[in-house]
Amino acid sequence: MRRVYFDNNATTPVLPEVMAAMQPYFGEHFGNASSIHHHGQETRGAVERAREPVAKLLGCRPAEVVFTSGGTEADNLALFGLVRAGDHVITSTIEHHAVLNACHRLEEMGCEVSYVPVNGAGVVDSEDVRRALRRNTKLISVMMANNETGVVQPVEEIGKVAAEADVYFHTDAVQAAGKVGLNVERIGCDALSISGHKMHAPQGIGALYVRKGTVLQPLFYGGRHERSRRAGTENVPGIVGLGKAAEIAVAGLERRDNQKMGAMRDRLQQTLLAGIEAAGVNGDGAPRVPNTTNIYFDHIEGEALIIALDLKGLAVSTGAACSSGAIEPSHVLTAMGLRADRARASIRFSLGKQNTTEEVEFALGLVPETVGRLRELSPLWNKREVKVQ
Amino acid sequence: MGEPTIAVAMSGGVDSSTVAAMLRAEGHAVIGLTMQLWNQRRLAGHEGMPESVQGRCCSIDDVYDARRVAEQLGFPYYVVNHEQRFEQDVVRPFVAEYLAGRTPIPCSLCNNHLKFDQLLIVARQIGAEKIATGHYARVEFDEGRGRWLLKRPADRAKDQTYFLFGLTQEQLSRTLFPLGNMTKAEVRQAAREFGIRSAEKPESQEICFVPGGDYKRFIEAYLAEQGGVPEAAGQLVTPAGEVVGEHGGVHNFTVGQRRGLGVATGTPLYVIQIKNDSQEVVVGGESALYSRTLRARQLNWIAVERLDGEMQVEVKIRHRHEAAPALIVMSGADEVTATFDEVQRAVTPGQAAVFYDGDVVVGGGWIV
Asked: Class of the B6-134+178-213 domain?
C-alpha cells in the first residue's frame, strides 16, 4: 500500500545524508570520546565538530550546547537544573508534557508554579507572564512553537519580561528548530531545548542550550561529560547525526525552504477547508510554524478519522497518546477554549522535508471522502442535520 | 481475499484473539480494536482502593497481548478511547443503581452502549461492515420470521447470551460470534494451533473496572472523587417493620445476601428487599426470599417484534441462574410480568430477566 507520512511533529525520518554521516561511528570510529588514545580522539573530534552546526542553528557558542538524550531530558535538565524548592516558576497551559509534568513534580518538591493561559488562537500574552511574576520567581518556561497547533509564541517579548525581572528564561524550541529562524540572543533566553528526531536526526539525541555562566544542577551524577552538565558517555553517532541535521536545517533556512513548506501546508489547509463544511483551523490567525495545521472537522471523532486514514495509507495524528496507544483529550485545544467535542474532532497534519506536493495531492484525494463517510455514519452529524431542518 | 472486512473487538484474552485468528484464516481482512474504557489508576490510592492495579481490562498488559497477536497475524490494530462514554453510560448508572438499592449488570450496559454501539460505529466508519467478538453465543438470520436470532452457544457452561439480550436487530445483523459453535477447550486448542501467546491465560470474571472485585469500595472511592458520598445510612427492618439494626448505605446490600448484615439472631437472616425511598433494608428468613412473579421493564425483543398475548418461556434472572419455566405477558406499555411455574429464589431488582424459547433468546428486560 502507498503510505504518506504527515506526522512529522511526532517524529521525522532520518535523512540519507544524516544516516551517511552517522554510519562510520557505529563501527569504524567506535572510540569513547573521553579516551586518551587515537580511537577516543577520533570520536572526540566528531563530537566537537558536531557541536558547531548545532550552535550555528541556535545562534550560540558551541560551548553553550549540552547534548542530551532528547527534548524531554533537555526540558527536565533546564527545569530541575535551574530551580530549587521554594522557587516560583511561570509556565503556560499549552506546554508539552515534558515541561508540564516536570512542573507538577517541581510542585511536589516544594516549588510554586503559575500556569499562564492562552487566548483562543493558542497564544500566550507576555503581559500575563509579567503579571504572574513574584518576588521569588526564578524561571519562566514558555515554548517557542506548540507541537499540536504549530502556533509560535511571543518568546522575544517574554524574553524581555524575563530580562527586566532578572529571572531565567527557558524555551522548549523542539517544534521550532529547523522550521523557523532561531537565535538565543534575539529571544533573550538562558536555556533552550531541541530534539534530534523532530528535525531528521535520529531518536535518542537532543540538546540544551545553556547560556555561559549559568549555574546548572545536573540531573545525572557520573563522569564529567559535557562540562559536568550531563554525565554519561556521549551518544556519538546520535551527536554526529544531530550535527549533520542542524547543518542541513541551517542551509534550508538560508534557502528559504520553509516558505516552500508553508506553501504546501497552505494548499493542503485551504483545499480541505474549501471542500469540507463545518471545518476550521485551530490557531487560525496566529503566527505558526510552516509545516503544521490543526483542523477540526465538526461532528466526527478525530480518533476514528486517524484510523480510517491510516488504513488508506495516510499517517496523521491528534493530541497525545496514552500508554495504551489510545488518544487522550488534548490539553492544548482545551486550554484554547475549544468545546470538548470540537477538540476531539481535531486532527493535526505536520509536513517534513521529505514530503512532496504530489503527496499533498494524495492527501487531498483522501481526506474529504473519508470525512464524508465518517459523518454519514456519525450519530452526531445526523442529529445535527435534523436540527438544521 | 474478497471476504468483507471485519473488525474484531479484542481484549487481549484467548477468546477474542482466537476469533481474530480464525477470521484471518478464513480470508477476511481483519482490523483489531481494543476499547480504552477506564483509567485503572484513576481511583488508585483512594481510601480502601489498591495503590496499584494490574492485570485487569484496559490494562497495559492486555493491550500488549492484543497488539502482539495483531503483529503476529499481520493485521492492523488500534486502541480507541471510549473512556468518556463508558463513564457516562456504564460507571455512573452502575453507581446510581446501587445507590437506588438495585444490583446492576455493567457488562450488559457496556454491550448495549459501548461494544455494539460506539465500537460498531467506529468499525463501520473505518471500513468494516461487521464486528466480531469472543462472546459465547450464536447469531443467525431466520428466514421464516425475517428476524436475526440470538441463540445459546454450543458450550452451555460458557453461555453469555444473558448479557446480550439488549442487542437490536440492526446490531445483530452486523455481529459475528465465531466461537458460538465451539467449546472453551476447543478454543484453547485452536489458540495453541494458531500460536497465540495468551492461549493459557486465565479467565477474567470480575467487573473490569472494579479492581480486586470490591464494588463497595469502588463506589465509595468514585463518590468521594465526584465530591462526596451521599447520606445513605438507614435501618434494617423485618418484613413487619420492626427495626433490628442499622446500616451504612443501601449500596452495601443485594437481595439474597446473608453475610455482613451485622445482626445476630438465632436463625440466618437474608436481605429480602431494599427500599430506596426510605433507605430501609428488609431482612428476614430464607423463605421470604422466594417469589413466583417478577416485573421487567425497558424491554428488548429479539425473536419476536413484540409480545402479543402470553407466551410460555424459560426466564433467567441472573447470570448463574438456571432458566426456569414461566408465562410472560405484557402488564404495561413497556412492562412484562413473568409468572413462574415454581417459586424462584432472590428475584433481584437491577438484574436482567431474559426470556428463552429453548436455545433462542426471545427478549428481555430489567427487573424492577
From this structure: alpha beta
- Cα distances (Å, whole numbers) of residue B223 to B31, B91, B216, B254: 37, 11, 11, 19
Give the whole-angstrom CA distance, residue A252 versus residue A272.
27
Last residue of a domain, one of A205, A229, A253: A253
Q: Does A327 touch chain B (CB under 8 A)?
A: yes
Residues 6 or more apart whose CB falls under 8 angstroms from that of A146 comprise: A94, A122, A153, A175, A283, A332
Please name the member of B78, B79, B124 whose beta carbon is closest to the beta carbon of A377: B124
Tens-digit pLDDT profile for residues A192-223:
999 999 999 999 999 999 999 999 999 999 99
- The CATH classification number of B290-367 equals 2.40.30.10
Q: Which of A308, A323, A326 sits opposite B125 (nearest CB)?
A: A308
Q: Which of A300, A308, A326 sits opposite B81 (nearest CB)?
A: A326
Q: Please say whether the beta carbons of B215 and B42 come within 8 A.
A: no
A127, A200: one domain:
yes
> Grid coordinates standing for B70?
495483531
Spans of all domains in chain B: 6-134+178-213, 231-284, 290-367
Question: Looking at the 3D structure of chain A, how many domains does it have?
Answer: 2
Q: Does A281 touch chain B (CB under 8 A)?
A: no
Rounded Cα distance, A144 and A95, in Å: 10
- φ/ψ region of A213 (left if φ > 0, alpha if ψ in -120 to 50, else beta) reads left
CB-CB neighbors (< 8 A) of A327 in chain B: 81
Fold for the domain defined by B231-284: SH3 type barrels. (2.30.30)
Residue with cell 439480550: B165
Sorted by sequence, the CB contacts under 8 Å of residue A249 that are 6+ apart come out as A57, A177, A178, A199, A200
Lowest model confidence (mean pLDDT) among A194-208, A231-245, B129-143, B266-280: B266-280
Instruction: Report pTM.
Output: 0.90
Pick from A198, A221, A253: which residue ends a domain?
A: A253
Same domain, A172 and A183: yes
DSSP state of A144: S
| Same domain, yes or no: A230 and A263 | no
Lowest mean pLDDT among A195-199, A209-213, A378-382, B175-179: A378-382
- Under 8 Å between Cβ of B175 and B128: no
Q: Does the ipTM exceed 0.85?
A: yes
Q: Are residues A180 and A247 in the same domain?
A: yes
A379 near B CB under 8 A: yes
Look-up of cell digits 496499584: B52
Q: Are residues A39 and A157 in the same domain?
A: yes
Domain that holds residue A77: 16-253
Mutate to test the interface with B, among A297, A316, A324 (most CBs of B within 10 A): A324
Quick one: average pLDDT of B36-50?
A: 77
Which residues does chain B have within 8 Å of residue A377's beta carbon, measured at their own beta carbons? 121, 124-125
What digits encode the pLDDT tens for the residues B128-166? 999 999 999 999 999 999 999 999 999 999 999 999 999
